[in-house]
Write a structure and sequence with these properties.
The protein has 17 helices and 25 strands. By secondary structure, it is α/β, with parallel strands linked by helices. The protein folds into 3 domains: about 200 residues, no CATH class; about 190 residues, no CATH class; about 120 residues, 3-Layer(aba) Sandwich (Rossmann fold), CATH 3.40.50.2000. The strands form 6 sheets. The chain has a 7-stranded parallel beta sheet with strand order 15-14-13-16-17-18-19, sandwiched between helices. Strands 22-21-20-23-24-25 form a 6-stranded parallel beta sheet, sandwiched between helices. Strands 2-10-9-3 form a 4-stranded antiparallel beta sheet. α8 packs antiparallel against α9 and α14 crosses α17.
């Protein structure tokens, strides 16, 4: 194992190398606990006074793009203790690491500035979202709010040494903690606020802290890759006794002894827009302990968007009134166009923040609607968890790449470039999708993008009364709305070439006079299905082909692109996007 030569002061180096002797563990008593707490209070007060006079300051966060050269990395397992008795503490530890990572990630160590673990993180209270983990106290691993963060301080100590930082303050654990860096003598214990980890760097560095499904990852990155002089130190025999844990300790005479409840991890379903395919999937895989998060009781208020059935779930979480009002107002004020799409992103952001409160330590698996994904990923709520994504549309990166290509080919079609999402949001969604265990969708094109990770569902056909049809020759329906990305331009050309009569089902967003030269009708209820020869949607993008499914249920021929997401089936003709010739030929054959 290698360490920088100049990083440790003489006393620190001696502390690492010299063997230590520890007394045998005795059973804690209430009196010893009171004495211990009194000493802690004195140390905390002293630290508070000293730091208020000349202590370190909290470091600001910077832009990750400026720090691209890796200097040191630590990767340690999240689930380091497989004992069943430690299950609850492990869940709490991972939750606390998740919360701490959000605070510490991105902190910039300017040259000479001291990084202080506690100054940077702050106190770990329940009000700040920290849960019960395990901490070392009087030689025992006991439950404590914010417990388990020593895994993070151990990793920070390790990367600070290997990146050439000067260790200002570091304390080893009094006992060996199974599965931790204490087993190799490379540990740094912390306890608010008097037992701290502090170090400084001679060069600018950025701290990156993240969790994947199985590991805590801590990195220090910088501007350059100048070599760091290193020294190999031998690892001395560690004579520290192993810490006892309240989870499996057999000393029932201890005043702290209690029966430990071992929770089972469960799944939370974070849903927004209702899809019957997703509801059927959730009902098939759910467990009685699972939590369903829905914004509002859609059945009671007759809101189709939230017609989720909470039957059989242990708990149903609702959104706050403020969040619902924000979501409703956003969608009402912006019915169509770029403003509506931005409003939907804002509403999803508000809803994701509300749903995050349902993701307690016991939630180990998440099934999440795609619209909420980038926001929950950005805020670290999916870190250290397995998750599946209910895919409602193509990834934003794919959508915008497709629109950019079409806009370059047809610059006169202004609606192809009228809106682009924030690149940072697109990057977040891409990162989250790459980390997902699976994507769940009935959309054929979306499923094809993800290969073996895709769980392909069947579309749910609508239950409708069979209509008595009397098709009018050369009459077709265009699903719409009248906008470039739905294939309006291509259909207009085909309609002129074939002298078609077009029933318009959606809003006209391409401006007045778009359909000049084409015979058009406005749809009225469902009667339009009685008289048409086919339903056509040559879309560049389509996420929810409900009208096409309704037409199939009535036996009406459907002409669509692969972007509409339908399976190859009787009555469905697939044509290439933006191909007027192929579209015209398909309509001619169908009618």
């Amino acid at each position: 194992m290698t360490l920088p030569r100049a990083n440790l002061a003489g006393s620190e180096l001696a502390a690492v190398l010299a063997p230590r002797r520890f007394p045998e563990k005795s059973v804690p008593s209430r009196f010893s606990a009171l004495v211990f707490d009194a000493k802690v209070a004195v140390f905390r007060a002293r630290r508070l006074i000293v730091d208020s006079w000349s202590g370190p300051v909290r470091l600001a966060k910077g832009a990750a793009g400026e720090f691209t050269i890796p200097h040191a990395e630590s990767r340690t397992p999240l689930w380091s203790d497989a004992r069943t008795s430690e299950r609850a503490m492990q869940l709490g530890k991972v939750h606390n690491l998740r919360r701490a990572a959000r605070v510490l990630d991105g902190a910039v160590l300017t040259p000479g500035a001291v990084f202080s673990f506690w100054k940077q993180l702050g106190k770990t209270s329940r009000a700040r979202g920290f849960a019960t983990g395990r901490m070392l106290k009087e030689g025992c691993l006991v439950p404590a709010t914010g417990g388990g963060l020593c895994q993070l301080s151990n990793a920070l100590y390790d990367v600070a040494l290997r990146a050439g930082c000067e260790i200002v303050e570091r304390h080893g654990h009094s006992r060996l903690v199974p599965g931790s860096a204490a087993m190799t003598g490379r540990d740094a214990t912390i306890a608010w606020n008097y037992v701290d980890l502090r170090f400084r760097s001679a060069r600018p560095l950025m701290l990156r802290v993240a969790l994947d499904r199985e590991s805590l990852i801590v990195r220090l990155t910088g501007y350059d890759d100048r070599a760091i002089a290193e020294r190999r130190l031998s690892t001395p025999e560690d004579r520290r006794p192993e810490a006892a844990s309240c989870g499996d300790c057999q000393k029932t005479q201890c005043f702290r002894h209690e029966t430990v409840h071992v929770p089972a991890g469960h799944r939370a379903y974070l849903v927004d827009d209702y899809w019957p395919e997703f509801e059927r999937y959730i009902q098939e895989i759910r467990d009685e302990r699972d939590v369903l998060c829905v914004p509002i009781d859609g059945a009671r208020w007759k809101l189709e968007r939230y017609r989720w059935k909470p039957d059989g779930f242990s708990q149903v979480r609702r959104a706050t009134l403020q969040t619902l009002l924000r979501s409703w107002k956003s969608r009402r004020l912006a019915q169509q166009g770029p403003a509506r799409r931005q409003a939907e992103l804002d509403a999803a952001d508000a809803l994701a923040g509300c749903y995050a409160t349902a993701l307690g330590p016991e939630v180990t698996d998440v099934c999440i609607t795609q619209s909420l994904l980038p926001m929950l990923w950005r805020d670290g709520h999916l870190a250290g968890r397995r998750f599946r994504v209910l895919m409602q549309r193509l990834p934003m990166a794919e959508i915008q790449a497709r629109l950019d290509t079409a806009a370059r080919a047809h610059p006169e079609r202004k609606t192809l470039s009228d809106f682009r999402a924030d690149p940072a949001l697109i990057a977040l969604e891409s990162e989250a999708l790459a980390a997902a265990d699976a994507v769940v969708t009935p959309h054929t094109e979306i499923a094809a993008l993800f290969g073996e990770r895709a769980i392909k569902l069947n579309w749910v056909m609508p239950l409708t009364t069979k209509l008595e049809r009397a098709p009018v020759p050369r009459r077709i329906a265009f699903v719409g709305p009248t906008i470039a990305r739905k294939g309006a331009y291509e259909l207009r050309e085909a309609a002129k070439a074939l002298d078609l009569e077009v029933v318009l089902l959606g809003s006209e967003l391409e401006g007045d006079g778009f359909w000049n030269g084409v015979r058009v009708l406005r749809a009225d209820g469902h009667d339009w299905m009685r008289t048409i020869c086919a339903v056509v949607q040559p879309a560049l993008l389509e996420e929810k082909p409900r009208t096409l499914l309704a037409a199939r249920a009535q036996g009406i021929p459907v002409i669509a692109t692969r972007a509409c997401g339908l399976d190859d089936a009787d009555g469905v003709t697939i044509v290439p996007e933006s191909d007027v010739t192929a579209l015209t030929a398909a309509i001619r054959r169908t009618i």
